[in-house]
Amino acid sequence: MSETDKFIAMVSAKVDVDLRLSEFQSCPMLVTPARQVLNAKFPAIDFHNRLDAQDPADFFESWMSAELRGL
């Protein structure tokens, strides 16, 4: 067996590199087929739209009172 441990040599290796962020140019190489999603896998309701109230405060009050009544 050799005197130097390969793992220790790997983790203690030092490299002098001059790599500036301003010189970075991305090169995307991921290629995937395009897919069209016609409908969602699961039904969902966007709760944040508050579509049933003109004033969000009115909706929040009715929602909170309904939640508290259920407790």
The separation of the N and C termini measures 71 Å
* Number of discrete helical segments: 2
Low-confidence stretches: none
Helix content: 25-40%
Radius of gyration: 29 Å
**Would you tell me the overall average pLDDT?**
76
Listing every helix as H and every strand as E from the N terminus to the C terminus, the arrangement reads HH
The biggest beta sheet is recorded as: none
Global structural class: mainly alpha
Q: Bin the strand percentage.
A: under 5%
- By DSSP, the count of extended strands is 0
Overall, the morphology is elongated
Task: Supply database-style keywords.
71 residues; mainly alpha; 28% helix
Layout of helices and strands:
Elements: H1 6-11, H2 56-69
In short:
With 71 residues, this protein is mainly alpha-helical. The chain has helices at residues 6-11, 56-69.
